Structures are given as structure tokens and as C-alpha cells.
Amino acid sequence: MAKPTAPLLSFGASGQIAKTLVFSRWRGRSYARRHVIPSNPQTAEQSLTRDTFSWLQAVWKIAPALVTAPWLAYSQGKVLTDRNAFTKFNLPDLRTAADLALMTMSPGALGGLPPASITVTPGNDQLTVACAEPSPTPTGWTIQGAVFAVIESQEPGVAAFYTISAAEDLATPFSQVIAGLKSATLYQCFAFLRWVRPDGQIAYSPSITDDGLTT
Question: What pTM was estimated for this model as a whole?
Fold first, then answer.
């Protein structure tokens, strides 16, 4: 992809020329590409990708701030948005998956270490999710809190249960009860840590996951 600084001998351009080149801007950067007529393949593989992509977009639209925060941190300084990062991480793993065991709820940002373990305890229409901090803690780093999230286990791209429930705990031992869930339903549960680095910046760990069945 070309990235001209002064396309067409000017300081900006958009649109197509003679159906050969297309000029535009994305996230403040000018670019040029060849003019093409989009195809619309309906192969099984393409449909699988589209369905999973649509599912991820629907999940993102209603994801709580506790979940979107690490993706925003991860995307800083990169030529992609937090939404794009969420899709980029999850689409390859989920497009052929039968459940959400391979889903990533936090990609990690600025070097935060993940929890040592995650524990899920079933309850009546609720799950208690806990995690253990890594040991030893890196010198100068402080755990600011742990974030827990649950989403109904499903085949992505087929089912349509988008709601993510999330909560945080700011003190050890890290644990939260996530209530208001469906009875006798399997949920995929996630935990990740929010760190304060020695330089004062907020870092996030990659998420770890396990499942839990409500009673």
C-alpha cells in the first residue's frame, strides 16, 4: 500500500482516478491503492470468517469499559483501533472453534504479567471467579487490581449471546462474585491483572481463562 505525503502533487486527495487508483486517508495517514471491484464469495470458509467477525463486532459493541481498557492500551501508537485489535486477536482462534476456550479477553499491554492461576466456583445463578497473583512480583511493579469477566459459552458465529459481565477487585486475595447469570448455564470466565509500572504507566496482563457452570 502506498503512503504518499503529497498525492497528485497536492497535500491531500480522495476518491478514484480513471478506475485505476484510489486515494484516501485512514487514522490521519494518506494512502493509495489499486482500484478493484469487490467480489462477494460465498464459500463455506468465507462465510465462517464473516459470521465470526460479525459475532466479535457484536460482542465489542456491548463490552464493558473494564474489558475494552486493555485493548485501548494495546492499540496506542499502533495503526489499528482497540476494536480492530480485539478482532485481530480473536478471529483466527475462534472462526473454527466450537466454544470460547481460545478467546482472548485481554491481549496484555506494556508488559504486565498474567495471574498465576484462575479458579471458578459455581453458585446459584452466579460464579465466583478468583485469581492468584504471580510470584515473585517484578521489582518496582505494583498490582493495581484484578479484572474478571464472563460470557456465556457458545459457538462463535452461530449463537448470539453477546453480553459480557465484568467486575474488578482492588485488593488481594483477588476474587469477585458475578451474579445475575442464567441458571445451569456454562460460562467462559477470564481474569487479567492491571499493573502500575515503575515509570507510573498502567500495564495490563494477558487474560487467562477457565469455564464454570452455574447451578
Answer: 0.80
